[in-house]
């Protein structure tokens, strides 16, 4: 194993830790890790990210469920429209994007570049959501009209399908703000949505891409170990402080990706 592979596997462990601690952000780490450190094409990287994050989140969901921190009904309500959007975007939208979107003189905006830049923009929005102070949410949760949940699920599902993200970094604030679920329960609930979205989205990729299963499964196994550790450590760490710190990290990563793609 060379140093690059070793760093990749260390990164996989960190991906799992982050998912276990804050219920999202796995793809924010996985995609840049696969693209910039391990040299994968962004389309392949986003596909692998879906499998890694989805499988790790499935383990995390079970861990959180045992603690009573998963609202299954709300999670499934968000999941249904989301996984439809994720699957369709991975099966048809991403493969249908032309290799070069447009060119201007010597400059060309490629499919790979557009995916990474859009990914960075979503990261900027996510970092703002994580850094911004929110009022304490200790009120009893209420059921919003299902048509709102359906539309919200479609929008987030399309976005996460395009960028190859599980969407936890979008679903946690969505569950807190829209569904009025307390933060700790929103983290656990987001994992069940991420699991369903990611794995169904990956099914769309399996039909269009060649998968390196040995690498993908070993990378995923290490991420699963990470999420088990992350869920355990989350019992002893303030979620608010951790989320804000991760928000600043995401902001730095987003700026870095934009710089790398546009330089």
Structure description:
The protein is mainly alpha-helical and 263 residues long. The protein has one domain (3-262). The chain has helices spanning 3-22, 26-37, 42-66, 72-96, 111-131, 146-163, 168-177, 183-206, 213-233, 239-262; strands spanning 100-104, 107-110. β1 (100-104) and β2 (107-110) form a beta hairpin. α2 packs antiparallel against α3 (42-66). The longest helix has 25 residues, at 42-66.
Descriptive terms for the model:
single chain; TM_pro_TauE-like; two-stranded antiparallel sheet; 2 strands; membrane; 10 helices; 76% helix; transmembrane helix; 263 residues; Probable membrane transporter protein; TSUP/Inactive_protease-like
Structural class comes to: mainly alpha
Write down the Rg: 17 Å
Main pleated sheet = 2 strands, antiparallel
Count helical runs.
10
Average pLDDT metric: 82
For the termini, the CA-CA separation is 31 Å
How many strands? 2
The outline comes out as globular
* Spatial sequence of strands, sheet with the most strands: 1-2
Helix content: over 70%
User: Which stretches are poorly predicted, pLDDT < 50 over at least 5 residues?
Assistant: none
Q: What's the helix-strand series?
A: HHHHEEHHHHHH
- What is the total domain count? 1
> What percent strand?
under 5%
């Amino acid at each position: 194993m060379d140093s690059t592979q070793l760093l990749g596997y260390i990164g996989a462990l960190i991906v799992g830790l982050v998912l276990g601690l804050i219920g999202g952000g796995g793809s924010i780490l996985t995609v840049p890790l696969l693209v910039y450190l391990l040299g994968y094409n962004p389309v392949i990287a986003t596909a692998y990210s879906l499998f890694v994050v989805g499988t790790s989140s499935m383990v995390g969901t079970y861990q959180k469920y045992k603690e009573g921190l998963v609202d299954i009904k709300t999670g499934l309500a968000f999941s249904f429209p989301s996984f439809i959007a994720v699957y369709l975007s991975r099966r048809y939208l991403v493969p249908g994007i032309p290799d070069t979107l447009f060119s201007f003189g010597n400059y060309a905006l490629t499919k790979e570049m557009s995916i990474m830049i859009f990914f960075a923009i979503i990261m900027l929005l996510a970092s703002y959501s994580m850094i911004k102070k929110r009022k304490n949410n200790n009120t009893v949760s209420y059921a919003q009209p299902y048509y709102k949940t359906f539309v919200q699920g479609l929008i987030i599902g399309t976005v996460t399908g395009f960028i190859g993200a599980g969407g936890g970094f979008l679903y946690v604030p969505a569950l807190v703000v829209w569904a009025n679920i307390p933060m700790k329960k929103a983290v656990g609930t987001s994992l069940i949505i991420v699991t369903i979205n990611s794995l169904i989205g990956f099914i769309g990729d399996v039909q269009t891409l060649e998968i390196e299963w040995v690498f993908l499964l070993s990378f995923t196994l290490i991420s699963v170990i990470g999420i088990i550790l992350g869920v355990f450590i989350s019992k002893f760490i303030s979620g608010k402080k951790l989320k804000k710190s991760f928000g600043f990290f995401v902001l730095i990563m987003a700026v870095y990706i934009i710089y790398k793609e546009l330089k």
